Amino acid sequence: MNKIRKSLRTAIIDSGIKNGMTVSFHHHLRNGDFVMNMVMDEIANLGISNIRIAASSFFPVHGKLVRHIKTGTITSLDCNYMTGPLAEAVTNGMIDKPVMFRTHGGRPRAILEGSLKIDVAFIAAPSSDEMGNLNGVRGSSSCGSIGYTMADAQMAGKVIAVTDNLVAYPNGPVSIDETNVDYVVVVDSIGDPAGIVSGTTKVTRDPVGHVIARHAADVIEASGLLKDGISFQTGAGGASLATAHYLREKMVSGGIKGSFGMGGITGFFVDMLEDGLFEKLIDVQCFDLEAVRSIRENPNHLEVSASHYANPSAKSCAVDSLDVVVLGATEIDTDFNVNVLTDSSGNIMGGSGGHSDTARGAKLTIIVANLLRARLPIVVDRVTTKVTPGETVDVLVTERGIAVNPARVELMKSLKEKGLPVKNIVELKEMAEKMAGKPRKVAFTDRVIGIVEYRNGEIIDKVYQAVKE
Amino acid sequence: MGTNLLFVPGNNPAMVQNAGILGADTVIFDLEDAVSGEQKDAARKLLKMALESITYEGCETSVRINAMDTPYWEMDLKIVAEAGIDGLIIPKAEHGKDIERISDILDTIPGADGVFLIPLVESALGVENVYGIASSSKRVRGVFFGAEDYTADIGAVRTKGGEEILWARGRIVNGAAAAGVEAIDTPFTDVEDIEGLKKDTLFAKALGFDGKASVSPRHCGLIREIFYPGDEEIRYAIRVIDTVKEAEKTGKGVASMDGRMIDKPIVLRALKVLRAAGIKEDFRYE
To answer: Are residues A152 and A225 in the same domain?
Structure first.
C-alpha cells in the first residue's frame, strides 16, 4: 500500500472532498501553523466551496483565510478558540453562519458521538513515516503533544497527515498510528518554529500580577488542598503562571509533593516535575521548547488526547481528577459567570479552550484577574458572553480583594480565618466603578455571530454582533 | 509610618492607580527625579486626581516634592496637600529652617493639619545637620537617608557593601533617635539582587534604622519581613505598655513584669515595636 501522495492537491482530490463538507485541523502549531492556510488555498484552487472548517483553534496566522470566506470557499467555522484577523472578520459579520464555539473537552465529545462529523482531517505532523505513524516531538517543527487531533484521526472519513519530516518506518514514539491515516503528504515546511512554541515561558514581572498571584497561592493553601498529592493546572500567562511560582515556593517550604500538573505545559511545570514537586505531567499541548524536550525525553511527562483531558462523555477524564485550576477572565459577573470569548465591546478575542472543562472538573476553581483592565472594571453585572457558568467558579482573586462564590460557605470561612482580604463580589465591582466609572453599555444587534456550546453540548449563550459606532 | 516605603513614579498612571496594593506601608509618589521637567504639570494633575478618587486602603500616601532650589516645589506642595496626602518627603534637606518653612505653609492649608514630613538627607551638609533637621518641626516623623546623592557629594564610589556610607548611616540613626523620630534607610538599588537586599536590610536594621525605602515592589515584602516585628515581639511590647499604664493608674512608682523592672529603654523599645507593627499607641513615657 502506498499512502504517500505527491502533493496536497492530489491528496485532497483522492480524499474526495466536495462542496459542503467539513475539514478539520489542530492548533498545536499555534501561530506558526502553515498547514491550514496551505490546505485551504488548494481547496480554493480546486473550486470547492461551502466548506466548514472545524479547527481546535484559530490564530492570527489564519487571517489569510478571510479571503476564502469572501469568495465562498469557507462558509462555516467551528472552534474552541479564535483570535486575530479571522476573529475580527467574524465580529464584523463577514461570515453568514454563526461560529460554533466549543470547549477542548466538548469538541472531542462532539466528534466521538458524531454530532460534529468530520469528512477530512488534515493533521500537521512534525514527524511521520510513510504509513502515517505520527508524533509531534521530533523534527524542525516539533510542537510536543498532538493531543487535540486524536479524536479527528479516529473519526474523520479520511485522514491526511501533512509532514515536513518523513522518517523511516516505523516512526516512534507513536501518538497517532497508521491505522487511522489514509494519506501522507510531504511539504517543505509545516510551520514556523518561532510561532509554534516560545523559547521559554517566563513568569511575569508585572507587580500587580504578583500581588494577585500571591493571593491566589494563599487561597490554595487556605482551601486545605495544598498537601501531598495535590494536582494543579494553570495558564501560561500573567498572574496565572505567577501563581504557580508562589505555589511552588509553598510546596518547597512545606516539603509537599504533588501528583500531577496539567495543561498547556510550560517549562515552569517541567522544572517542577524534574525537581520532584510533581510525579507526572499530563500534557495536551506544549507551550515552549522546554515542554517539547521534556515530553520527548521524560516518561513521566504524559501526552494525552483532548478526550482524555476533558471529554465529559468519556467514562472518566483527567479534569475530573484535578484539585486546583487557576484561570483568567475578560469579564466576570456578580453571579461568577466568566467570559473569555469576547471583550467588553463584543469583539471576539478568544474562547473557552479548556476553561469551562477544568472549572467544572477541578475541586477548586480560581479566577485571577486585575480588577481594572486598562480603565475597565473586570467585574460586571452581567457578562457580555457566558462561557464558564458561575456555579463552577469558586473564587475570584483580584489585586484589591478576593471574592468567594457564596455557595462555597466552608471555603469562605477558611479564607476569612486565614486573614485573607475576602470581599463581596459586588463590593469589588463597586470599588472598580468608583475608580474608573461605570462603563457605558455596548449596544448589540439581533444578529447572532457565534454560538457558545458548553462542554456537554448544551447551548449556553449566543454572541451577538455589536452596533458599530 | 511603617517599615517599608516604596517609590512610585508620579507620572505613571498604572503605577499610581495600583500603588496601594503593592505591599508598601508608605507609598512615595515621586514628583522629583522620576519626572522630567516638561512632565511635572501632568504628574501633579495625575496625582491630584488619584488622591481625590482612589482609596489607598492599608497604606499611607506621601509625595516626594521637588527640591526647594527648583521652581516646582511650592506648586507640588500646594496641590498634593490640598488633594489629601498623609505626608511629604522633602528632598535635599540641609537646614532645619527649610523644614520649618514647609511646615508653616502646611499650617495655612485647610485639611493639612496631620500631614507629616520626612526630610530626605542626601548631602554632606544635610548629614552634618541631621539633628537640627529632625527636630525642626513637630510634623517631622522621620529622617530618610539618600545614599546615592550623598556619596556623589562626598566624592565616594557607591558600593553594594556600603562601607562609604557607614558613618553617615550611623549619624542619621543617631540624629533621628536624639530627636525622637524614625530613621529610614536608603533604597537598595539593584532590583534583581534579592540576596544583596536581604544583607543590606539586615545590616540597616542592626544599625538602628526603623525602616527602609525601595524602588521596586519586589523589595517590599522582604523589607517588611525583616523590619516587621514577630508575633512574640509584638505580644511582649503590648504587655510592657499595658504594665506601665497599669502602674501609672495605680500610682506605683516603678512598673515590673516577670520579676524585672521596666525602665525607660524597655518602654521606648516596646513603643518602637508597636509603631513598626502599625499598632497605634498613644502612651507617652514621662
So the answer is: no
